[in-house]
Amino acid sequence: MSALLSILLPLLLVLSVQHSSAQAQDEPVVLQPTLAESDRVRAIAQPVARTLLRTIREELTHALAKGGPVDAISVCQIQAPALTQQVRDEARPSGAVFSLKRTSNRLRNPADAPDPAERQALQIYLEAESRHEPLPPDLLQKVETAGKTTYRYYQPIRVAALCLSCHADPAALSSDVKALLRERYPQDQAVGYRDGDFRGLVVVGLTLP
Ligand code: HEC
What we know:
Layout: H1 2-26, E1 29-31, H2 35-90, E2 97-103, H3 116-130, E3 139-145, E4 148-158, H4 164-167, H5 175-184, E5 198-206
Antiparallel strand pairs: 1-3, 2-5, 3-4, 4-5
Bound molecules: heme C (HEC).
């Protein structure tokens, strides 16, 4: 028995060390970009983030006025990904922006889940909100993954009155909206918000030319 252990134990140790170093390689290293890099990242990404938020807000306002929240949910579900892709493709210089999304710590659509770098950014905003400090207007990261450098640009998304028909406390939602949300997003966590709350982040992923 002890002879078997003396063979097995070192083997197990080696295996577990290999496992953790492989994990460490996949984990992104998140750094602070230099001021010069930040200026260049902001110049490309800020208009993209603003355009996305403005476009989604316009679409929602339009859809709510036309068909009310139940229709607007379908518009949101179908349009949000298409709009996001369109805004990303129109970004200049072309090819610099390789990803564009919205993410949150309280998700409606699980496809919007944050990756490790995005979780760090969310954490910074959540801590600022819990300390009642003003939220940073944007946040930048230099991300190194497997020897490749990319940048992330974030802008906070706040809840406005317009958002409440679909993101307020369930008690305040219409029964039609509640039923549709339950059907399409059975794991919905994105309710219970009030006007002005931090809702999530726009994330622009880019490389510098
Ligand atoms: C008509 C209902 C409706 C309104 C109004 C609405 N949303 Fe949403 N929201 C949704 C739906 C549905 C999704 C999931 C979209 C999808 O499936 O891609 C969503 C997703 C999101 C997401 C992506 C993260 C996640 O949880 O999946 C953010 C951020 C968000 N909404 C913020 C807002 C903000 C801010 C407003 C107000 C400006 C707003 N929403 C107004 C229905 C709505």
